[in-house]
Design a protein that fits this description.
The protein is an alpha+beta fold. The chain contains 14 helices and 7 strands. The strands form 2 sheets. It has a 5-stranded antiparallel sheet, with helices on both faces. A two-stranded antiparallel sheet has the order 3-4. Strand 1 and strand 2 form a beta hairpin. The longest helix is centred in the C-terminal third of the chain and has 20 residues, at 226-245. 50% of the residues are buried. The model is unreliable at 1-5 (pLDDT under 50). The protein binds glutamine. Residues 36, 72-73, 104-105, 123, 165, 172, 200, 265-266, 291 line the site of glutamine.
Length: 318
């Protein structure tokens, strides 16, 4: 892991990203597009983009890094951040912090745990997190507004995708109802579902997503205000959840191959964080069996190896 004072060689990083983009486009397997909605199912899976936003505020990109895609479950990271800001540790009374070992849309565990989802990154957990967000007082920031602030300009929503998950989403609706049955959902199921559909349909490019993730790689500083320290602590916690739960049932394999905290979405995006060093976004709409971008994961494994970025130690002598 590069230390904060270790400068990234930007020319080398550009070369690495170009090599990766080229390699991904010539890979013979691209995965399957998500069958979740017509809009997602019809996308050309043979596409790839990568963007790296560095601790020094440089942005390096390659491939289709400006093409926008729906962030889907990556939005769960932003929702969790807002919930932790508003409610602190109380969030954990409502949702757990353990990997689920089940697919992202599985309902099985929810009954066993009396309506308390395993973690905030599976769908059941995201719905409870949104329920918390709906309880905030006054004019509270939505996930889309938060992302707009992070990116620095207004971000859009894919209306067709949002509408098809509002109309459908029967599995998610069942989970929301089951949480309500166990008194772990205070708002109307429809209101929770609408907010979920909206945040999942937020559209970002790799360049925008990498910039949005900047706040998750807070650099070490010798002196911090109490608020900055709190923020840094929160970021550590979010990263720990991204590592253990961010790719659902594929989180163990992902940690093994990539070694960085990350969150995927069925739109084909993945946001990965090299703490103190870089916020990385990759996109390729073909998914693996766990619903994580196939080429995106492969690309992150390459990048982590070539740049020697891993939270589990360095391959080089310092
Ligand atoms: N909108 C998707 C759903 O509700 C998001 C899931 C995902 O990206 N894994 O199932």
């Amino acid at each position: 892991m590069a230390t904060p004072d270790r400068k990234i060689d930007l020319n080398r990083l550009q070369e690495v990203c170009d090599e990766i983009a080229e390699e991904m486009m010539s890979n013979d397997e691209w995965g399957e597009a998500s069958g979740q909605s017509k809009e997602l199912a019809e996308i050309d899976t043979h596409q790839f983009g990568i963007a790296v936003y560095t601790a020094g505020d440089d942005l390096i990109a390659s491939g289709k890094a400006e093409e926008r895609f729906t962030i889907q479950s990556i939005s769960k990271v932003f929702a969790l951040t807002l919930a932790l800001e508003a409610f602190g540790e109380k969030v954990w009374d409502r949702v757990g912090r353990e990997p689920s070992g089940d697919p992202f849309n599985s309902i099985i565990d929810l009954e066993r745990h009396k309506g308390k989802p395993r973690n905030p990154f599976i769908n059941a957990g995201a719905l409870v997190t949104i329920d918390l967000l709906l309880s905030r007082k006054g004019k509270a920031e939505s996930v889309r507004e938060f992302v707009t602030r992070l990116v620095g300009h207004k971000v859009g929503v894919n209306r067709a995708v949002a509408n098809s998950s509002k109309g459908g989403g029967f599995g998610n609706r069942a989970m929301a109802n089951l949480s309500k049955f166990f008194d772990n959902l205070n708002h109307d199921v429809d209101d929770v579902m609408d907010a979920y559909a909206e945040q999942c349909a937020v559209m970002l490019s790799c360049k925008e997503l990498a910039k949005a993730g900047d706040y998750l790689m807070v650099e070490g500083a010798d002196s911090r205000s109490a608020a900055e320290r709190k923020r840094a602590e929160r970021v550590r916690r979010i990263n720990s959840l991204m590592l253990t739960c961010g790719q659902y049932d594929g989180s163990g394999e992902f940690a093994y191959r990539v070694g960085l905290p990350a969150k995927s979405g069925v739109g084909g995006g993945i946001l990965a964080i090299a703490p103190n060093t870089a916020s990385i976004a990759v996109w390729s709409p073909g998914l693996d069996a766990n619903g994580n971008s196939l080429l995106g994961t492969m690309a992150l494994a390459r990048l982590a190896e070539k740049m020697d970025w891993s939270i589990f130690g360095s391959l080089r002598r310092r």
